[in-house]
Structure formats: C-alpha cells, structure tokens
Amino acid sequence: QVQLVQSGSELKKPGASVKVSCKTSGYTFTTYAMNWVRQAPGQGLEWMGWINTNTGNPTYAQGFTGRFVFSLDTSVSTAYLEISSLKAEDTAIYYCAKDKYYAAFDPWGQGTLVTVSS
Amino acid sequence: EIVLTQSPGTLSLSPGERATLSCRASQSVSGSYLAWYQQKPGQAPRLLIYAASSRATGIPDRFSGSGSGTDFTLTISRLEPEDFAVYYCKVYGTSLFGQGTKLEIK
Predict the structure, then answer these.
(1) How far off is chain B from A95, nearest CA to CA, in Å?
(2) What is the pLDDT of residues B75-93, one digit of tens each?
C-alpha cells in the first residue's frame, strides 16, 4: 500500500536550519506531485506548496517563499522540506501529502514536529 | 486569494444523528477543485471527499459531499462514535484550508 513516512521530531534554535524527509513507498514516486502542509500548535492547516516529482520544479504558496525549499531524491523516492533561518513562529507540525487530484491529497505522512526555541 | 469560511465552528450532535457541515468560498470555484478532510487529535488529516462529491478510497458511504459555485456541504448521514473530529475544506490553488468545523459529541 502507499505509505509516506516522515523523519522524526526536531528541536532547533532560532537561526538554525532543519531538513524534514518524506520517504515514500507503494507507488511510482515520479508519477504524483508532493505537497507540504503546515499546522501550527492548536491551529488549522496551511498549504505550503508542491513539487513536481518528475521535473523537480517547486511551487511555493504565498508566505512560503525565500526560507522554504522543497527538494527530491528520486533514487530513494524521498521528498524533502528544508527551512532556513528558523524563527519561533516556524514551530509547527509539517506534513507531506501525495497529490491525488485538485486540492485532494492522499495519503499524508504522519507529520514531523519542528520546535524552534532558544 | 479565495477565502474559505466553514460553519458552524463547532457542531454538537449525538451518535446516530445527521451532520451537515458548510464550506463557503469568497468567489466561485469549480466543484472539481474542492476537497474535504477529517482530522482526529494527534493524527494526520485524511482525505474524505474530492471533486466536491467523490468519496476517497475506503471512506464509508455515510459521508457525502455536494455543492457548486460558492457553497459546498459535507453530510454525514448517521454519526458513528469515530466521526467526531475536526473537518476542513480545501480549494485548489489557495494556500488556506477552511478554518475547520469541530464535530463534538453532545
């Protein structure tokens, strides 16, 4: 079955960088785009953007340009989210989610909690 | 950017009752571009409905979606204990999901 398994929780200091991985299995990785979604503590969901897994071309949503980078390693069917110059407000759970249809993401990874604190 | 407004914010019902959740868009959207998600505490969201009315794989038929233009509805025909959760709508091309409807046990 299709599975997305994300890397574990991270605790980082302000100004540091973090790289979250999303390892996929059960389907051809390059056939479906990968999305990234953020959920701050106790808050709703925010779509960060997506990456074309065939070309590697990323598209970032408003508010997620500059410090956020989506990348791939197709040899291991894995997508990555890197956040640089971390701020306290980046503290959130970050999810990867396989594209299914317009606005439809299925399935999702289990989420990675990134905590930014001095 | 299209803004999605979900109502009510909280819905208190009993198992066996019918739930009707609303998602209103600030401008008309194609029904093909709307999806509904369920999220339980401590879990990742799960896709329920896509293209406004198509059930995702493995979703029970008590869940149904409808609507067009700016008004969309998620209906749960008879609530089961496992249905109490937060529900979000999402439209293609916008960064925001709806703010969510919390479905709680009355």
Answers:
(1) 8
(2) 999 999 999 999 999 998 7
